[in-house]
Each structure stands twice: as C-alpha cells, then as structure tokens.
Write a structure and sequence with these properties.
5-stranded parallel beta sheet; alpha/beta; single chain; transmembrane helix; 7-stranded mixed beta sheet; 15 helices; membrane; FAD/NAD(P)-binding domain
C-alpha cells in the first residue's frame, strides 16, 4: 500500500518548485507533477530557431529573481544557478539617437534623464536605497503573512506607489524620465493610470539599484533546474510528462498545491465557479531571433544593456497599453527586448546572437504583429532585419498552447490591473487557500503576482505547513 504524501504539487514552474522546496525543507514528504516533459513553466530555455541558439520562450531577465527573499535562502548556486550582469541593466532609446538608462548607479540613471529631472529621481528613490532585503520581504509577502520587518519603509512606499503611475510621473518635467518609468510599469501589461501602478515602476527601478537586472547563465531554464535539483536533494520527487485532469489522478496526499491558473484549479479540484470573477488580461506577441551579429542600435547605451525598452514617449507607451487592454492591437507597439548573448556567449554560436522581444496585444488576438514590431525595432536600430537569420513567433494562441497557465496568452496569469494587481486571486487575507481544506493555489495568480521570484510559492507553502501541523 502506497503511503500518503504530505503534499503534492501540480505544476513545476518556479512557484510550484519553490513551494515544494519550502515544504521539503521543513521535513514534509513532497512530490511534484508536471504535464510537460521538462520542468520550468515560464522559466524555460529551448532551441526555438536554429541549432545552437538557445532562447527563453517566456521570461529572460530576472530583477526580482536575484532579489527574491526566498531564493536568497536557498543554495541554488550549488545546483548550477549563476547570475550574469550586463554592463547596464536597461536602456531606453529615443528618436534623437540618445537614450536614458536604468543603471546600478542612481547617479548615472538620474544623469541620463537630464538636469531638469535628475534631482527629482534621486529624491524619489533615496528613502528606499540600502533597504531592499527588508522591503522586498515585506512587499512580496502581501497580503502580510508575517509582521512587517520595516513597517515605516513599507508605509512610505505605499504612499508613493499606491496611486496611479501617471501621478508619480508628474514629478518629472521632461518626457525622458516619464517614458522610461512608463516602460517599467508596462512590464505588468496594465494601463498606466491603474491603481498601484506607481509601485510597479518603482519596484523595478529599486531592484536595479539594489541587485541589477541579471540573466542566468545558460538561460532561464537554469533557475528551474536548480530548484528541481535542490528539491531532489531534500528528498522530494519530480514527475514530468504527467498531466493532471482531476484530483483522482494524483497519489493520496494531505495537501494539494497548484501552480496553475485559477481556471484550471477550479476544473481539476471540482471547485465549480469559485473563480468566475477572476479576470485575465492582455497578451503579448513574442518573437525570438537568431541574429548574425548584435543589434545595430543607433544609440550607444543599448549596445551595453541586457534589456532595451522601445517606446520613445510616455504617450506612445500609454496608448499601446490602453489599446491592448481594451481589445485592439496598438498601431505603434511598445516593446520590451532582451539581449542575453551580450553577457552569455553560450546562448549562440560564436559571433552570433539571440534576441528576445515582445509587444502587447489583446487577450486571444489572432493576428501577426511581426511587421509592426520589426518596424519599431528598425526605428532605433536601422539594418536590424538584415541581421535576422531566423525568427520564432508566438502569439496568444501559441503562448497558451505552450503554457496552459497563460489563458488567452496572458503571461501574467491574470490581469495585473485594478485591485487585482494586489488582491489576487480573490478578496481574502488568505488568497492561497480554497474552499477545499486540502487544496491550495501557489501560482502567479496569487500575491505578489507575476515574475520569476518564487514568492507566491513561498507564501502558499506557509499556509500549507500551518494547515499540516494543525491536523
């Protein structure tokens, strides 16, 4: 007779693996079941174009990964995770051939905005500098699963970040700073005027100053592989190629933890319409490129940056986000791009490069955004198309096929707008629990939301081990 496990985790993305590790570290028996043949979820690396070109189908750059409170407690370096830092975390080019930057240095970042806004930026970030560890632990545990370590800094952050980002951007007199900050907010694919969007932009800026925006050597798969290896070292098991359609498909356990969308959880666990009010947001159109050389940026700074935001004005960026969220593809897309092979030559054959880019489109959109995106890249890197050896495109349908958590191509696993930015996946002090006492949710549909940081898994694991110790 098979002995009952303490916990079964469904889904081997970073949050599911983190939840499993946290339970295994506390002596619980844990098994993970993943439908795909490899672990990873949104943190995978694959040859999508040509042999020898290793691409990240979803996440590529990890400011919240290197700064994750839970990852920092794990010996992931012993299991192959090695963070690589580009010279500049991010650059944001403009039509005049110049660029603003987000640097590890506050002074360099502020100077790139120009003299009219340098002081405003320094004053914005000054109260939070040197406080990342305590601040991140508090901010990424919302709703609070423990007493805040630094309540004063958290309250100060709330005063600045809870209003819409458009309010925060009024601090700046010129559009260079506003455009860069609007691009930071756009990483959660939400309109700029939404509740708490100021917090999003500020967190990404502070992450750069505290820890940079690095990439893992070998690609995002390295994060997932390190988590899985650590879990196995702790005695946990991982089963891949195992699709779960109902709870009966799983071995008996005292707790079931789902790194899935709320939609899938409700279907598998028989929770009926428990998450009918949960909203899914805009999608992206993703292109992975194999290039014959580096991107020929006009401005010098993007040639040294791991991430390049492409949107020359805050108005253009705001319009693109508003249209995508409202059901229309933007005429002029805002793009987030990454250049992994600048810092990691192992990602491409010698002298060649991989390039990663996406633009925002409506949920479930079925068009082709390639021409619009490449026109926008050429605007700041003339001759880019001449360096393309191959491209792999993925719209909302393909993204959802690759990862069932991406409903309609929503890579955030739920709209990160309105109250749902913070109160995911339901209005509750315990969003990780469900109406079934043995079933829990740990995906990015729970706080703190999207990103490869494992904190949703960590927070959910806290709820699970508290429940297991009660029975």
């Amino acid at each position: 007779m098979t002995s009952m496990l303490d916990a079964v985790v469904v889904g081997a993305g970073p949050n599911g693996l983190t939840a499993a590790v946290e339970l295994a570290r506390r002596g619980f028996s844990v098994s993970v079941f993943e439908a795909k043949e490899t672990v990873g979820g949104g943190a995978r690396t694959e040859e999508l174009t040509l042999p020898g070109f290793r691409h990240d189908p979803c996440s590529a750059v990890h400011p919240l990964g290197i700064g994750s409170p839970v990852f920092r407690t794990m010996p992931l370096a012993e299991y192959g995770l090695d963070w690589l830092h580009p010279e500049l975390p991010m650059a944001h080019p403009f039509d005049d051939g110049t660029a603003a930057v987000l640097s590890r240095s506050v002074a360099e970042t502020a100077a790139s905005f120009g003299p009219r806004d340098a002081g405003a930026y320094r004053r914005l970030v000054a109260p939070f500098l040197g406080k990342w560890d305590s601040f991140a632990a508090d901010f990424m545990s919302l709703p609070l699963t423990a007493l805040p370590r630094d309540p004063l800094t958290l309250a100060r952050f709330g005063l600045v970040g809870l209003p819409p980002s458009t309010w925060l951007m009024r601090r700046f007199r010129d559009d260079r700073a506003r455009a860069l900050f609007a691009g930071l907010v756009a990483h959660v694919i939400a309109p700029l005027g939404g509740f708490a969007t100021g917090a999003v932009g500020l967190v990404f800026a502070l992450a750069a100053h505290a820890n940079g925006w690095p990439m893992p050597r070998g690609g995002s798969q390295s994060i997932s592989d390190a988590l899985a290896a650590y879990l196995r070292a702790l005695g946990g098991t991982v089963h891949t190629g195992y699709e779960v359609k109902r709870l009966d498909d799983l071995p008996p356990a005292r707790a079931y933890v789902f790194d899935t969308s709320p939609t899938a959880l409700a279907r598998i666990a028989g929770l009926g319409r428990a998450y009918d009010g949960y909203r899914y947001g805009a999608s992206v159109f993703k292109i992975d490129y194999a290039l014959d050389g580096p991107v020929p940026w006009t401005a010098e700074e993007p040639r040294r940056a791991g991430t390049v935001q492409i949107g020359p004005s805050s108005r253009e960026i705001g319009t693109a986000l508003r249209r995508a969220s409202g059901g229309q593809p933007p005429d002029t897309p805002f793009l987030i791009t990454a250049q992994p092979s600048l810092v990691d030559p192992s990602r491409a054959p010698e002298g060649k490069h991989v390039f990663w880019a996406y633009g925002h489109v409506p949920n479930g959109w079925q068009g082709d955004f390639t021409t619009s995106m490449e026109r926008q890249i050429e605007r700041f890197a003339p001759g880019f198309r001449d360096r393309v050896l191959a491209r792999a495109t993925a719209g909302p349908r393909e993204l959802a096929e690759r990862n069932p958590n991406y409903i309609g191509g929503d890579i955030a696993c739920g709209a990160a707008s309105g109250l749902q930015l913070l109160l995911r996946s339901k209005l509750s002090l315990s969003p990780y629990t469900t109406s079934h006492p043995a079933v829990f949710l740990c995906s990015s549909a729970t706080p703190p939301g999207p990103g490869v940081h494992g904190m949703s898994g960590h927070n959910a694991a806290k709820e699970v081990w508290r429940r297991l110790r009660q029975v």
